[in-house]
Amino acid sequence: MRNVFFAAILGLALFGLVIPDADAGKRSKKRMCQGGDDDNPTSSVICEVDLPLEITGYVPCECELEVTDNDIDVFNNGLDVSNLVIGNVSAYCNTEDGFKVTMTSANGGLAHDGGGDPLEYTLDVASIAFTPTEPDFELESTIQQVNATDFENADVELTVDASGALEGDYSDTVTIEVAGIL
């Protein structure tokens, strides 16, 4: 017991007594007022005190992205496809300077399930033309905040010519990313 008591006294001596400040952030100001004189009666004396109250806050960057795939066979109505709506995209960031849209192709074109060169295609999203030419092909475009509504329910239009292509399944995966410009 003596050792515990000695350790407690030693701790207080070395580190001091720590008491949290309950008045942190509190400001005060006093003003003493006295009654008036004969020319200025007490009822007309104004005693006032003022202090500012600061209100602050930070709104973080938030981005929203929604991609809808129409899940259609793009060659169902022919091999030469032009401006076929295959889905839509909605994107928004609450940043003053707008946002960047990045589209990345996994295959660099519509890859055939049996191999060979992929079919070249173009996606048009809100007037941004995306034509991947190699695997992991990436296109980045900046959308100014004043034009941000262009990316609300924007159609994704596909143009591809598969005339003369080999029979089989063709596919590509395009990843769309939005990032607020801070």
From TrEMBL:
Protein name: Uncharacterized protein
Organism per entry: Vibrio breoganii
